[in-house]
Amino acid sequence: MQPTTMRAFVTSTYGGPEALRLEHVPVPEPGAEQVLVRVSATSLNPLDWHSLRGEPWLVRLGDGLRRRKRPGLGVDLAGEVVAVGSAVTDLAVGDRVVGAGTSSFAEYCAARASSLAKLPVGVTTTDAAALPIAGVTALRAIDAGVIGAGDRVLVVGASGGVGTLAVQIAVARGATVTGVCSTSNVELVTHLGATTVVDYTGGGLDSLAGPFDAIIDTVGSIPNRRRKALLRPGGTLVVVGGPDGGRLLGPLTHLMRSKLAFVVGGRTARPLLAKIDRDALEALVELVRSGAVRVVVDRVAPFEGLPEALAYLETRHARGKVVVAVGG
Hints:
Blueprint: E1 5-10, E2 21-26, E3 34-43, H1 46-53, H2 60-63, E4 76-84, E5 96-100, E6 108-112, E7 116-118, H3 125-129, H4 132-144, E8 152-156, H5 161-172, E9 176-181, H6 186-191, E10 196-199, E11 212-217, H7 224-230, E12 231-239, H8 251-261, E13 268-271, H9 278-290, E14 297-302, H10 306-314, E15 321-325
Parallel strand pairs: 8-9, 8-11, 9-10, 11-12, 12-13, 14-15
Antiparallel strand pairs: 1-2, 3-4, 3-6, 3-15, 4-5, 5-7
């Protein structure tokens, strides 16, 4: 018999990680097309701190202008199905799953069945929890750049959550990858398969030499004029992140500016906001199971330490992903 209450991090106000409270709240009831997952692990994403802080203000259109309408936070999850909705036929109680849910910073989480994939033997819940947002974003960035065998690819921010996965997926598809990261992460990015690794500190970006068939930029630290010069004619810039860009639109400002800057010149800029779906999750899980992709986890925090882990992620110094162990 399932418990009726659970521990979850909640908040009714916008603010920093200190606004989160660990409380006992009712276990959610899964809808007809949902399942209830006992969460083993969740991982943290920039989306989480943007949602918590209510910045950029654009996020408040859905979450509430002054106070949060929905107290829970978190998307990524890995765990075990403990109940299924009346319309769910492709998942069953006892299935190990990975994917996206609603308010996954909790011991139980309701999630649409279509946003989950079964987790095979050999893939841990720690590794799996790191995949949904970062992994799907990396996979769809590779798709958007039409990256394949023989292509030259530049990954800016190669040591981050999306970057570490993008480097490896591109290599798995036969591309030659140049990664950009800080001094302390050069060895890591080299081990992930990058043929060339550029240290952006101390003027290292000046040594970048194109042309590249595609650029995947998770940071936004290279000016558009320079990014254009690094791309071959017909090449593609895929923008999956960037500087904050102000309290109104945040990173969306950078995405839009990149798109506009590439309107002319024979090169394409594609801002990317990936949607999590089962096909992408299954592809990612198979890459991990086969050993083609290694999940880079900076640290695994205990459930009670989630606010501190989120504060650490917000410093933007994490190597790969920050995972939180929720249950057994």
